[in-house]
Amino acid sequence: MVCKSRVIDLRNIGDKYIYFENGRYRVEIALGYNRANGKRERFVKRVATKSEAITVRNAKIEEINANQITADANMTFLVLTKDYLLKHESDIAQSTLDTYKRSLNNYVLPVMCNMKIKDIKPDYLTDFYNYLRNEYEQKTSNKIGLSDVTIAHIHSTIRAILNHAVTEGYITKNVANKLKNAPSLDVENPRQAYTPKEVNKIYQLLDNENLRFRAIVKVALSGCLRRGEISGLNWSDIDKDKNKIEINRSVTVITGKGLVIKEPKTKKSKASVSVSQDTIDSLYEYKSELELLGFEITNDTPVFLSSNGKRLSPDKISTYWKKFVSKNDIPKYCFHSLRHTGLSLMYMGSGNIVAVSKHARHSRVSTTSDIYLHSSPKQDEELVNILENIRNDPTQALTQREILEQIQSVLAQVNYTLSKKE
User: Fold this and answer.
1) ∠ CA(78), CA(79), CA(85), 5° rounding?
2) With bands split at pLDDT 50, 70 and 90, how would you rate the model's confidence at 86?
């Protein structure tokens, strides 16, 4: 039986929860059953006078009402974690589960193992994250402090487990949701996108790269595919005649299992997207190279192969991109930023948020506007300079036209046409 918390009304409470015995007053409030050990929990305190008893009782009731303490709230974080994994392990994506277990085993449980969940407060979590950020000594490298991304994963793990506690009725609020400036995966690596000039430079630099890498980057920019979706492509997914790519699967890397093929991220992620002719040409140029090397290509063959002829890992895609940006004079953004870039440029060129959201395969248009439709600091500076130049000299309006033409040259490769306004 789940012990649900309740709010106790202090109005007209009279002498409730106060008992007189052996010349003293006893305050006793039932808290229900502790699910962790099966025992009944009570708050009991004895005082000398009735006025003291009333003060103690009212203070405890205010605490119960404020914190919604139940018997289950006395369970330890370790017991809660085991309960969470027992009930949800089969529902969690394997990659997410691996992240949770890594966070728990390496950082959380060594510190919070025996801590009662009712004692976990926002200030405690804030101090814990500050400790991990500034004082924690990494065992393998002896470096001090964890990255903001690692701490954000730890926070996400704790929040998920406490959400489970709320759902089960062990507690009624998740303190991890109450943190000011809570660790976020966007802290260290916000939604970054390349400018039109930078994309043009990337396309020029691709001429110096191998055919496989060229095709991968163009698919990411033009189709706005995630790296797992790119890894999951088979040749049956490529429609050469219609310039379309069908996203039917995604690939993730699981510790101890290797590459695992799964359904795309959401129901809408499983869809067909248009790509540029240049992208299709690059894909089939790469395919011709594979055939010349002796690979037998069928509809079920993965599009992107490693040197041993097996499906290319999404981790390898990220590694190749990291090497590419490291050796070239372009911002060191992650591979996923190519998806953000493609979507941002498409919106800049079309102004059609609904069409862009469909191309992104988002469940809601609001997701597109909230996450992807942004401008980088450089783009923002360009917009300000346009207005400043026109204010100082109306003939400088040509500067705006030139910038629009730069955008158009990129969008031509992603199958959109920029409509200029005179």
Assistant:
1) 90
2) confident
